[in-house]
Specification:
Length: 146
């Protein structure tokens, strides 16, 4: 139960970190942030149900944590693995959000060190799912506007 509560706490921290990073980037360069938002919409636009987001979140959380924290971190260390993790998420180019992803990689690596790979998988999956649910709710809200 303690690991579950710890994981939920870290999910909230990572979602807030992502939101702050996105808000800061929007303030710095709103046109570039909007462009990336549109690209994300194109890439993930067909994922529009609870079940699809849950499956995507679980698959990416499991796969990325097994690769980055489970396989690479013990060999290459925390910092280099977090850097690789950030570079694996630069499909839109190097942006301020890349730094946020690097910090998320550090946090996930520290979680793995302290609590194990299962908790880092749970946190990563939960974080991805939370972002998906926020996106889904925003889409549904936008569709209700006149």
């Amino acid at each position: 139960m303690q690991q579950l509560l710890t994981g939920i706490g870290w999910i909230v921290v990572l979602v807030v970190l992502q939101a702050l990073g996105g808000a800061l980037w929007t303030l710095m360069d709103s046109s570039q942030a909007k462009l990336v938002e549109n690209i994300s919409g194109e890439l993930l636009g067909n994922i529009d149900t609870f079940g699809e987001w849950l499956l995507l979140a679980m698959a990416t959380g499991l796969g990325e944590e097994l690769l980055f924290r489970g396989a690479l971190q013990p060999v290459f260390g925390l910092g280099f693995t977090a850097l690789l993790f950030a570079f694996a998420h630069v499909q839109y180019g190097l942006t301020p959000v890349t730094l946020v992803v690097f910090v998320i990689g550090i946090v996930l690596g520290l979680i793995r060190r302290k609590h194990g790979t299962a908790v880092s998988i749970f946190v990563h999956s939960g974080y991805n799912f939370a972002l998906g649910m926020i996106s889904l709710l925003a889409m549904q809200y936008a569709n209700t506007l006149p």
